[in-house]
Specification:
mainly alpha; 8 helices; elongated
Length: about 190
């Protein structure tokens, strides 16, 4: 144990490189220490940890192929939004279903609120002054929905997070179905739903 400690200190000194090559000089300097000699004239080579790590890293580099970088796709340009009246009000344009859905959402909530508070069915609500409210709300909401579309602002560009343009479309579709189902149920039963 003592011999290995001396050997380690000897190898750690800067002079050690020249001393290891010439063992006779080492044995003269430290005659009290035992220095084993290789048998049969075999020479032993001592590798430091840094050399071993370098060899292992070079083997790993050779063994693992370098991945080829994938080219980044060029961003697709945003489609231009048409401001023409015929494009905005086209069958598959942005205005018709969106405006109808918004009106249906407001109409369904208003019809259910009046039915709960006054106990009137949908047809009596329309005949007792609900028609003017419907017409006024329709004009106001349509104009408010059309102004951004005629300025070239798309609905998808303003939607993010939980309230997306697709969620608004689905809510509008369900509200339209809800209004039709409410009117049909009250017409067939002849009384209010609630």
């Amino acid at each position: 144990m003592a011999a290995s400690a001396v050997m380690q200190t000897l190898l750690a000194t800067p002079v050690a490189g020249s001393l290891v090559k010439n063992q006779s000089r080492v044995s003269h300097l430290f005659s009290a220490t035992y220095m084993p000699r290789p048998r049969g004239g075999a020479s032993r080579r001592v590798l430091c940890k840094a050399e071993l790590d370098d060899q292992m890293n070079s083997e790993e580099k050779i063994a693992t192929p370098t991945p080829t970088p994938t080219p980044t796709p060029t961003p697709t340009p945003k489609p231009k939004v048409s401001k023409k009246f015929s494009d905005v009000f086209a069958f598959s344009g942005p205005a018709p279903e969106r405006i109808n859905g918004r009106l249906a959402m407001i109409g369904f909530v208003a019809a259910m609120a009046v039915e709960l508070s006054k106990g009137q069915d949908l047809f009596s609500q329309i005949s007792n002054g609900g028609g003017t409210w419907f017409l006024g709300t329709s004009i106001l909401l349509s104009v408010a929905s059309l102004i951004p579309l005629f300025k070239g602002v798309s609905v998808e560009s303003k939607s993010d997070g939980f309230m997306t343009s697709d969620a608004e479309m689905w809510n509008g579709r369900f509200a339209m179905l809800g209004l039709v189902a409410l009117a049909y149920t009250e017409f067939v039963s002849g009384r209010t739903l609630l």
